[in-house]
Amino acid sequence: MLRKVQPSMWRCQLMWGLLLLTAVPSRAKLGTFWHVSDFHLDVNYTAGDGDVTKMCWKKAGGYDGAQPGTFGDYECDAPLALVESAVDAMERIHPNPDFIMWTGDDTAHVDDNSLTNVLKNRFPNADVLPVLGNHDYYPKNQLPPTENDLQTKVADLWKTWLADEYADFKSGGRYYRDIPNTSVSVLALNTLIWYKSNQVTAPETDNDPAEQFKWIDDTLTELAKRKRKVYIMGHIPPGTFERYQQKKEGFHWFQERFNKKYIEMVQKHANVIKAQFFAHHHTDSFRLFFNATDATRPVSYMLLVPGVTPWRSSLSEETGANNPGIRLVTYDTDTGLVKEISTYYLDLTQANNNNRADWKLEYNFTKNYQLNAINPTTLYNLTKTMKTNRTLFDRYYSANTVNLEKPEVCQEKCQRLHWCAITEVDYERFSQCNAASSTSAWAAGTLVAAVVLILRPW
Known about the structure:
The chain is of the alpha/beta class. 33% of the residues lie in helices and 15% in strands. The longest helix has 17 residues. The protein is globular and about 55 Å long.
């Protein structure tokens, strides 16, 4: 026998049910992707007792008599054993990512086919989103802003990944991709045409080579109308290199006019850009972008992924080497917000001694930096705390070379350099920040009054 429910009781039950539904927050749908870069595969690398002329394509400071190990050497680019171990680790740790960001400098001086096949074979179902690095073109750095033979060959090599984007990549080295079943779109840029070492685009007769800035503006405007959440990826980053102490004005990569235009682009489209992912430094760091009219309000951030190559840079003494690193990013597929960044690394010395590549979790970003979220505001608060909290800065510095260098080697001048590089992407503002105070004044968190008027409030 059915029990008759009174209308008033039915309405009460319905209202109570609706209250329960609204009281329970909806669970975010989380996705993941790998970000890897700067493999610098050297097919001539020879471990053990081999021909020293074939050990490395370059050995900084000349050959010292030491034989490189199976998985690499801090003076050399990556052997195939190291590259395969990195991809093995990716497959073991998280075999089913939504996609893979592959941000260049992969086979600097040899045929690109071998590394491409490694990724294809291990991740046959993943979208791989690649861009060219400055060493992925010959002669290095000199990529023209127009369609060229090498770029066409690379486009053909990556055609299975970039079927819909093939034409854009072939003609301009850039494209965008909507990630399936998410609200996220990835904008892949050709940063080589903005590189200061690219003599093809160096003459200041063209302020928008290949009209890439116009393409970015048009594309981001359209993606915003579609309510997409955008990640920007590229190889060479804007701003200055955090590990070059020899210049108060900073050591940078973009031609200055392109650096300014990039900052303006980010400021204009900050609402749709959820994060930026770049490489080239081989180090682990991040950058902040601020509102065009309010220099105290951060609006966007960039993450710099460490390299797989352990090669010791010959740029300057302090640029140093690094342990190999790879990165897994967890994100909200609806909002595009980055929820976690997990960096894995290989202790290269230990791997060679044990003849086994044991990739381990180096750190989780939120736990390491005691953050409840990853966004421009929390990262800015982190940098302000790092300025006077040496313990927190030491965690950052350990991560910077992927757990290789000890933090005590970075004292006040070095610490200031990192802080200014993170907070001042504009070249002039970086120079003002880096040259503004004596080391003792900076360490104490104070600046002379005249400089305070110029710099962003600390």
